[in-house]
Structures are given as C-alpha cells and as structure tokens.
Write a structure and sequence with these properties.
The protein is an alpha+beta fold and about 600 residues long. It has three domains: about 170 residues, Jelly Rolls (Sandwich), CATH 2.60.120; about 90 residues, Immunoglobulin-like (Sandwich); about 280 residues, Glycosidases (TIM Barrel, Alpha-Beta Barrel), CATH 3.20.20.80. Helices cover about 20% and strands about 30% of the residues. This is Beta-glucuronidase.
Length: about 600
C-alpha cells in the first residue's frame, strides 16, 4: 500500500479537522444512517480520551463514533477514488452514507477503501467511523475484558502505557487513475562507488495488460541518474551518494505507467541507498560499524494522547539531535508514517517494532504475586494470537519496507521468551519476517525474566536487545550490586549466543525537581548515576553495540499504585523539559565523538 502522494496523475484531499463525536451508549442503533445526534466534536488526528472533562468518555470501553460530511472534488470524474486512514485504534468500521465500505483491526497500520462507483465527483457523502478500543487475547496488543457491578465493561491490559484510542492519524481522500501503480518495493546495494537499486512494481486496475512500466531514479536536484523499463529490474547509480546516519540523502524512484504512448499514472517513491548487515558481533551500515545511541520513545503528548502532531515531531527530533542520539525504537508499535519520513530526511536510524507488547503473563504474576498461567497456552496467546501477530507483521513491513531509516525489525517487546511454547510461537514469525524482507536484521526485546540460561528464542534473531532494570526494580538504590549483576547478565547473553547485544531499555523513574546528595531513588541525581553505572558496564563489553534509554519523555499509563500520573522514566518531562539526566546523556553521547570508548568501534 503506497503512501498518499500528489503527482501529475494523483490528488489528495485532507479530511483532518473537527468531526462529530459520540459514545455508542449515547446514540441509537445504526448511527451511520443519519446525522450523528451529539453536541460533541473531536479533532482528527487525536486520541479522544483526554479531550473532554467527562470521565465516562475517558474510561469508555467499546465503540465510539466519528462523523463528518465529505465532498468529492468535481474534477475527479473517471478517476479512482480511495479513502485512506493512517490508523484507527484499535478496530474500525467505516460507512459511506448507509453502506459499510471497510473494516480493519490493528491500531497502528493504515487501511483504505475503494469508493469508486460508491461516491460521485462533485457530490457530498456522509462519512461515519466506528472506533473500537477493546483488547482481547486475540488482539495485538492483547488485553482482557470483564464486567463491573454496574454491568459496564472493564478493560485490563499488560502493557505499561495508556490505552489511548481514536482516529490518531490523518484521514485522506485520494484519487488515482483507473490503471494505477499499486505498490513499489525498493532494495539497495553497492558495487564499488555505484549504488544498485533493485525495484519491483505492482500495477492494478482496468488496463493492466496494456500498460508498460517506465522507471527512472532522480537525485535531490531532480536530475535523472538511472533509467529502466519493466515491472522489475536493477538500476545502477554511478558515484552514488549514500544515505548515512546523520547525513541523509534521498533519491526518488519515478514510476510511470504508459498506455498508448501517454502517461497513465505517475508516482515517485523516495529511497536512500544504504546497506545493513550483522557481521559477527558488529552492526554495519554501509559496511561501517554502527553504535546505537538514543531512546525508546512513545507517541504520547498531553491532551492529544497518541494523535500525531507535527510540532512535537519537529521538537522531538531537535531534542534527539541535542542529546547526541542517532537512533530510536518505535516502542511499542509502528509510529505514524510522517515520523519515518522525517527520520529518512534527517538521518536518524530507526528500529521498527510491531505492536506485540504484553505477550507475557509472568509480568502480571510478578506484580500481583499470583502464579501466572502459561503465556502461550491456547486459551491465552496461542495460535489465533500468532495469526493476528503475523498479519500485523505483514502490514508493518508492507508499509515501511522502503524507508532507509529503518534498519531492523523488532518482532515483540518483552515476550515470555523464557517459557515453553515461545519457540513454537516465534519461529514461524521469524521465518515470515525473513521471507517478507530478507534485507534487514531481526530483533526482539528480552524481558527481565528471560535470562541467558532460560531464553528459548535468542538464536533465531540477529541482534539481542535486552531490557534491564538492575538498580530500579531489583537492587533498588544499590547501584554497586546492580552493576555486578548487570555485567554478568550481559556477558551471559554474549557467551551463550555469540551475537551482538544492545540495551533496548534501561532507566529509573524520576520526579523532576527532586534532589538528593545520596543515592535516593526518584531523584534526578539517582537517574544520572543509574545511567552512568550502565554506561560503565557497556564500555567493558566489546560485543555491545548500542544503548537506548527508557524513556525519551515521561508518558501516560493506566491508573494504579505502581504509577503516579504516568511513567516518569523520561529524561525529558512529558512536555519536553530536560531533567538532569538529559544533560548527562548529552555529555556522553557527544563525547563519544563517533568512537565507542574502550572498543575502537566507530559510532556512526
């Protein structure tokens, strides 16, 4: 599925703005059949939970309704008309007037509906979207539904971030020709100073058999640097300018469909020429060792929740650059396409993660003291869950395969990889990922309960990403003991698997403004000392290839005694004010100066 882009043959109309809004409990049956009877309006894109002062809306479990009128441009006669959603969290039903035109499950990947013949150019239609936020053992991420004494549904889930819901990304109405480019896949390599661009074009529509495919690569100045014909081929770009971390360079692959000597469709796919490889215990970008510095992040801001916001996008990337970060992980779901486009243009490296977070019943057992049931049992997260997980993986790779910033796929965060059934669950997913994209390495983030001794899936992956909280959840306030156990733990992973290791999460909750001359947990000094201890360990392990602090910024979680107004492990507050740790990280990462201390490894 191609991202919506205007071209000589394509147009887009943005449908963002204020839509009518209502809970399903406050409207009659079949609300799509008439004007939504509600005084409320909600912005798109945004999560709806924090917009209103009504607690029933924030805590609602079930379906909400969005509605607006849309006019099809009158110039779109004889064109294909497509309605495209960047995402709807977590499931959607889409109606045009009284007709169901699309359904989709999965809150972080796009979907579309072909409205050709359903709507008319120059005419107006009523667009209604039902948004369902419920999570079950057969959704990704999973959750559990129950009923309270009042009969209302209650939602519980295993991930430590708030279950924001709504239309969180842009909605667009798009036109294409009736014979059109349906998909483009680009993979790049190098031959000396030349760049090799392997491309595949899929076309669809009314006159596929009559359409010829013409392609050309253009540089940033718009000059043609290579040309080809046919739906598949390899272009050679002489004296190529590589896409590199911190030094992005993007080419454009102009794909044209030609019928009877005329251009039937035209679409330009941005791409960067770069290679990615794991060799031994090194991660190589363009053949050079790369050391990850950066964060796990969240799409999370005040009021908008997970709604995409270009202002926060720009500011967050400015703060990444300020700290010396060169990368981040899309914890714990695919981020908006605009985020990856921005990373492509600005040379930030991305580990792209599915929404498979919470596949671990042992976490809840650890919090409650109640022995957990087996995570991968059929009644919990068995084959049906894996099938849904596989579909999420397909949609993630289909959407993001052409982004040069994306250098690795993360298949899950903190699964129960130490439990029986983990290998049977993950091995088919690893095989699927390698089939869908053989060019990028694979990883997953290992939970504290998974150790070098009991992990059952580490050998399936290329990079071992480890989440550890020695000094916070265990050995709290005792950094000396934490340092000993952290080093033994990391060395154990290297020794058993012989693969490169990185830290995908490490951090300590910190209340901004709390200070102490002692190692007092929650103080800004403790957060800085905690990170410094981890860095000492990292610098002693030659096979270590990166550090992603948890988290970039404080973020909202569900209410409970374990969290006070959210997770406070950010080195920035939720409104992006720096804590002391942000300055400490800046000194370390800028001081690395493209060299990892003690190992001679180039940082990139």
């Amino acid at each position: 599925m191609l991202s919506p882009r205007s071209s000589p043959t394509r147009d887009t109309v943005g449908l963002d703005g204020l839509w009518r809004f209502a809970l399903d409990t406050r409207v009659g049956a079949a609300p799509w059949t008439s004007r939504l009877d509600s005084p409320l309006e909600a912005p798109v894109p945004a999560s709806y939970n924090d917009l209103f002062v009504d607690a029933d809306i924030r805590d609602h479990v079930g379906v909400v309704w969005y509605q607006r009128e849309v006019r099809v441009p009158r110039g779109w006669a004889d064109e294909r008309v497509v309605l495209r959603f960047g995402s709807v969290t977590h499931a959607a039903q889409v109606y045009v007037d009284d007709r169901l035109v699309a359904e989709h499950t999965g809150g972080y990947t796009p979907f579309e509906a072909d409205l050709t013949g359903t709507v008319e150019p120059g005419e107006e239609f009523r667009l209604t979207v039902g948004v369902d936020n419920r999570l079950t053992n057969e959704t990704i991420p999973p959750g559990t539904l129950s009923s309270g004494p009042d009969g209302r549904q209650r939602q519980s889930y295993l991930h430590d971030f708030y279950n924001y819901a709504g239309i969180a990304r842009s909605v667009r109405l798009c036109s294409t020709p009736t014979t059109f480019v349906e998909d483009i896949t680009v993979a790049t390599g190098r031959d000396g100073a030349a760049g090799m661009v392997d491309y595949r074009v899929e076309i669809a529509g009314e006159a596929v058999d009559l359409a010829a495919v013409r392609v050309r690569a253009i540089d940033e100045a718009g000059r043609t640097v290579a040309e080809g014909h046919g739906p598949e081929g390899v272009l050679r770009i002489e004296d190529v300018t590589l896409w590199q971390p911190g030094a992005a360079y993007l080419y454009g692959l102009v794909v044209e469909l030609v019928t009877a000597g005329e251009t039937a469709d035209s679409y330009t796919q941005p791409f960067g020429v770069r290679t990615v490889e794991v060799r031994g215990t090194q991660f190589l970008i363009n053949g050079e060792p790369f050391y990850f510095t950066g964060f796990g992040k969240h799409e999370d801001t005040p009021v908008r929740g997970k709604g995409h916001d270009d202002a926060y996008l720009v500011h967050d990337f400015q703060l990444l650059e300020w700290t010396g970060a060169n990368s981040f992980r899309t914890s714990h779901y695919p981020y908006a396409e605009e985020v990856l486009d921005f990373a492509d243009r600005h040379g930030i490296v991305v580990i792209d993660e599915t929404a498979a977070v919470g596949l671990n019943l042992g976490v809840m057992g650890g919090l409650t003291g109640v022995p957990p049931t087996p995570t991968f049992a059929p009644e919990n997260f068995g084959g049906a869950t894996r099938d849904v997980h596989a579909q999420h993986l397909r949609e993630l790779i289909e959407r993001d395969k052409n982004h040069p910033s994306v250098v690795m796929w993360s298949l899950a965060n903190e699964p129960a990889s130490n439990e029986d059934g983990a290998r049977e669950y993950f091995e088919p997913l690893v095989e699927l990922a390698r089939k869908l994209d053989p060019t990028r390495p694979l990883t997953y983030s290992a939970v504290m309960f998974a150790t070098p001794q009991n992990d059952q899936i580490g050998d399936l992956f290329d990079v071992l990403s480890i989440n550890r909280y020695y000094g916070w959840y265990v050995f709290t306030g005792d950094l000396a003991t934490a340092e000993h156990y952290l080093e033994q733990d990391l060395r154990g992973w290297v020794q058993r698997f012989g693969k490169p290791v990185m830290m995908s999460e490490y951090g300590a909750d910190t209340q901004p403004g709390l200070h102490s001359v002692w190692d007092a947990p929650w103080s800004e000094e403790y957060q800085s000392d905690y990170l410094a201890m981890y860095h000492r360990v990292f610098d002693r392990i030659p096979e270590f290839l990166g550090e992603h602090v948890w988290n970039f910024a404080d973020f909202q979680t569900s209410a409970g005694i374990h969290r006070v107004d959210g997770n406070k492990k950010g080195v920035f507050t939720r409104d992006r004010k720096p804590k002391a740790a942000a300055f400490a990280l800046r000194r370390r990462w800028l001081g690395l100066n493209r060299r990892k201390p003690g190992s001679g490894t180039a940082v990139g």
